[in-house]
Amino acid sequence: MSTLQHRYLAEMGIPVWRLRATDAAATATVEAGEVPAADEAAEPAVAPTAPSAPPSLADGHFENRSCAGFGWDQLAAAVRDCTRCGLHRGRTQTVFGVGRRDAGLMIIGEAPGAEEDRRGEPFVGRAGLLLNAMLLAIGFRREEVYIANILKCRPPNNRDPQPSEAETCTPYLDRQIELIEPKAIMAVGRIAAQWLLQTDVPIGRLRGQVRQYGPSGIPLVVTYHPAYLLRSPQAKAKSWQDLCLVKDIVSENQ
Ligand code: URA
Questions:
Q1: Is the pLDDT of residue 81 over 90?
Q2: Residue 251, CB-side half-sphere exposure with 13 Å CA sphere
Q3: Nearest residue to 81 (alpha-carbon basis) of 93, 69, 65
Q4: Distance from the CA of 192 to the center of ligand 1, in angstroms?
Q5: What architecture (CATH level 2) is domain 66-252?
Q6: pTM, whole model, 2 decimals?
Q7: Domain residue spans in the chain?
Q8: Which residues line ligand 1 (CB under 6 A)?
């Protein structure tokens, strides 16, 4: 591993030589029932037991073809002008997505927060800085990947997206995925993971293995949301495993 990677791992709070110990400690914490804090408390949910069988292809979203055939400009304009759900009333602006339109890796989060709503770009707050460090740790600069959210508008008070909002907004995301044709998707956080995979399996059992998304079965890896990792650093060791998994997929398919 290079010095650069060591540096970014350190920024993430992951001393390489402590991986196994940290992992054991994290497992012990969860097993002891000390599930950490507040709004991301549902994030780890369970100790990582034997992984469940991968869900079938989550291609149901692709049935809504309302953006079929859109090019990038048409898609961006449709998102910018969107009034399909009530969230448009509270937004400063839509948050379309950023990055390379031929990226090998696509990151999908939940929804814009306050800072993202203000700046029109996903993952630019504190969680975004950690996401950048996570990506650098596996050799990707932020500009080299594509980053988007399930929702393009900020939910009020950062509440969870409602299923109807996610359903309405997903055709935009699906068209982004179709245009990019990423080698792998990394879903960050419980909400994005459960929505994309159309499951209520807890994130602790979704992460750590390769899933698939869409009719073409794009490899999808789930990991914890960086906002959760900021509050629960003991989960970073597991997140590092997920990052390595997704990196391997992208490398293998280049
Ligand atoms: N959290 C998300 O899921 N997406 C963002 O863009 C910012 C925070």
A1: yes
A2: 9
A3: 93
A4: 10
A5: 3-Layer(aba) Sandwich (3.40)
A6: 0.81
A7: 66-252
A8: 109-113, 116, 122-123, 127, 149, 189
